[in-house]
Amino acid sequence: MKKAFCTLLVLALALLPALGLCQEDTELSLGDLIIEEDVFYDDVPWNFPIDISDMDPEYIRLANRDVLLPKGFVPEPMMVMKSRSNGGVNKASSSEMKLHEVAGEALIEMFEAALTQDITLYLKSAYRSYQTQATMYYNRLESNNGKDDGWVTPAGASDHQTGLGCDVVPKEWRDRSMNEDMAEAEECQWMAEHCAEFGFILRYPSDKEEITEINYEPWHLRYVGKEVAAYIMDNGLCLEEFHAQLQAAIDEFIAAGGKASLVEDFIQVSAENE
Question: Residue 21: exposed, middle, or buried by beta-carbon count in 10 A (0-12, 13-18, 19+)?
Fold first, then answer.
């Protein structure tokens, strides 16, 4: 990879005082310069706001009704989320919950940061296996006259199966059925404002229901990495929109002669689950 920097311009600026050309009324500083960087891989430009090296295909893995995870997909390495008294997080139940290790460590960091602002968060749900999701979906249909109401996804389509998605709630919602009213809680507003600092996004925003095909969930966080999280949250995207933009950049890169091997891990194909 090669990056084009304005090296000569910076050197010239540094030499101005020695040449006697820097007068008080014409002073310049590096802060006055706009230096653009173009990222290239083997002379092929990568036209996307985030460099390939700043994304991990595992962390941005998509799981929805169009892109299904395989039955046997289990994220690794996994960690058991312990209660905060043991160096973990506040938990809404005594059941064992697991997350991908990188997401679990980031969640602990976020919980600790929240406490410094007198914000107390509770982990209510984390990783779910394919079979667990299948059972939950079946039960939801059974209790709802066979209608899929957008609250529970089919097996393979759940963000929870990635091990990177989790439900985080305020204290008063630990034992209540979750709904969009939770967004009014101070804790959820804090999460929406600060989650990207720890690599998380709000997976199912209120204005993206037609795209995600999931109802607004102010409690559902998804780890994607700090660079990606900042871009998604700053630009008001959902993960599906991010992937659409990324795929367009990949198509352009390959069409221009870029090596497919550099980007192939970011291209997802839906599993053929029966």
Answer: exposed
